[in-house]
Amino acid sequence: METVKYLLSEREMPEFWYNIVADLPVPLPTVLHPGTKQPVGPADLAPLFPMALILQEVSTERTIEIPDEVRSIYRQWRPTPLYRARRLEKALDTPAKIYYKYEGVSPAGSHKPNTAVAQAYYNKQEGVKRLVTETGAGQWGSSLAFAGALFDLEVLVYMVKVSFNHKPYRRALMETYGARVVASPSEETAAGRAILAEHPDSTGSLGIAISEAVEVAVQRDDTRYALGSVLNHVLLHQTVIGQEAMAQLEQAGDYPDIIVGCTGGGSNFAGIAFPFIGAKMRGERDVRVVAVEPAACPSMTRGKYAYDYGDTAGMTPLVKMHTLGHTFVPSGFHAGGLRYHGMAPLVSHLLELGQIEATNVQQLETFAAGIQFARAEGILPAPEANHAVAGAINEALRCKEEGVSKTILFNLCGHGHFDMTAYTDYMAGTLKDFEYSSEEVAMALAGLPSVG
Ligand SMILES: Cc1ncc(COP(=O)(O)O)c(C=O)c1O
């Protein structure tokens, strides 16, 4: 019998998050204060985050215990299945073995609840009453709204305007969970009003929505900010994905030669890849790791490794990352979760260290890959996840060309059931590719802050 799904019992769910910082051969560059440009301390971050998350942000411990209450909520959908993509392998006629970890079984439909639940838990523990955040695809906003409902926290979401218009049902889902959703840029904040004064038709960006959320969060003592990607503690919470995949591949008697993930801010990619990269850095097992980003927002493949703000208005701390510049507003392509100007400092650092590779793909190629995947495997991927599907298919076709059988693992980070406008546009032939000229990229990078 050919096994298709590798499943773990609830008892086999990881008890710890894995912190890759403990295994880095070179430490991460320091985080700087946006005003003084001096290293930030935990107290500087206290208006934004609860102390437990700040301590995770700077932790160098290899493992951090997952609180029982968080694990008990994870059990609503974790462990998630690992699939062997036997039908896709046949369709591609490839000698490669393709496995995918499916995070779309979570209540919100993606990997995002892995950190939303943890963040809501620590905020609740420290007496916070309200969380403010941004969302691009709506997956993160839905996840925090869901977590807020479980912990009786008020949730306010600034949703990038282009996604707000494309995805009314994501907004309805957030409202069903009890959150308030505002299209960003909005008239509700100084940051939003400044953008609208200059660009009344702005379609928004994650950087702008983050500025709005941070501005609102620091105004009230009972309110904190929550971020769905990029930060060390967010990537940490996602490592349950890779740890489970490792145990499931062991069941299958396999180990990946190649791991593929899509990258917006880097969290689902980190989730699947970090436990394996840790093993590689400890000299235990080798693996090739490929991050796939959109050609229309190519922070790693065309950006610069430099200190930059996490948001457009320059309110967040400065981090060293691959960036297109905090003022970069990507075109309104459909993978809303990948429209971020920067990349997680940890993912950027690993790219600099040569531990991972980065590549970019065009929108039309990603939808063609997603549809091929759906027709073979049945699951309809989120437009963001289509980038990983395209990356995995490219690797499998290369195996075919070279006549080698490699084991490919990719993260199918979410389903696309709320993204049917994007699919219908693709099928109607109205979607197009976006490419930036070198001049446009250079112009956005010219706004990088100078750091001594
Ligand atoms: C389904 C999905 N995949 C990927 C991403 C990109 O984020 P990250 O790179 O942090 O996984 C998002 C972000 O909203 C998303 O919704």
UniProtKB/TrEMBL annotation:
Residues where N6-(pyridoxal phosphate)lysine is found: K112
Broad enzyme group: lyase
Taxonomy, superkingdom: Bacteria
GO MF entry, a single one: pyridoxal phosphate binding
Keywords assigned: Amino-acid biosynthesis, Aromatic amino acid biosynthesis, Lyase, Pyridoxal phosphate, Tryptophan biosynthesis
HAMAP family registered for this protein in UniProt: Trp_synth_beta
Similarity remark: Belongs to the TrpB family.
Record's subunit section: Tetramer of two alpha and two beta chains.
Name this polypeptide is given: Tryptophan synthase beta chain
